[in-house]
Amino acid sequence: IQWHIRGILPEDKEAYDKGKKSFSEIIVGHSLHQDFRMWFRGLSKPVEWVILDDSMEAYERYNLGKRDPRTGNVQKSLAVVKEAEALKEKATKKAQDKLLISEGDTKIIEKYALHEYDNWLPPGDVGSTPYAWGVLVTISIGVAQPGVQRQSLHEYFYYPSKDLPKRNQKLMNGRIIFRAFKQPRPLWWTWMAIRDPRPYSPWCGIDQGVYHLTPAEDLKYIDKEDYPEWKERKKDCE
């Protein structure tokens, strides 16, 4: 799990490398989103999600499974398919990050940053911008296990490494849901299922073993009731 920061000027990166500026100083004003990347046995490439929110407080609530004070429900964040987003961004040259880092935000970032794993991306490289650096700041490393996997819902169970600092072991620890919704338009949303940690039934959850991620706008079925299989399973599952 990483926070992906882009737009760091070459002169700021050089000042940081020489110890003349702190990490917090060089990231203020730049964009951030969260990457969730998993490798599953038998797959030729990783499963990669981009998680988007509009404040570092919201990211922290999402990662800890805390309630959103605006709704009273668990914090939900927007999610997009990493591979599709990369292709779209390459074509349009536009980033979709909803957050620009403030001085106050750096306190949350530094609270969880595991800088020994920092992966710096030079200007022009994938994950950076044409003239500025990007950096992947790791906040958790662990083991992920899949639950129900259908085109419009992906369930994961994530267990952070016990070697991490205690505060990092709390991030995304447990059952994680990525689910597509129809309204107001097809979108992926994600949340920590803290209040319902039990796995979905593969039968009732219409598990298809589909690990590949599909952009929400390209899904044929979204709600469980849309799937043809639901007609014969409904009586067993309600």
Describe the structure.
With 238 residues, the chain is α+β, with helices and mostly antiparallel strands. It folds into 2 domains: 137 residues, no CATH class; 91 residues, no CATH class. The longest helix has 11 residues. The chain starts with a strand and ends with a helix.
SSE layout and pairings?
Elements: E1 2-8, H1 10-17, H2 23-27, E2 31-38, E3 47-52, H3 56-64, E4 77-81, H4 82-92, E5 99-100, H5 105-112, E6 119-121, E7 133-138, E8 142-150, E9 153-160, H6 166-169, E10 174-181, E11 187-192, H7 230-237
Antiparallel strand pairs: 1-2, 1-7, 2-3, 2-5, 3-4, 4-11, 6-7, 8-9, 9-10, 10-11
Could you give a short description of this structure?
By secondary structure, this protein is α+β, with helices and mostly antiparallel strands.
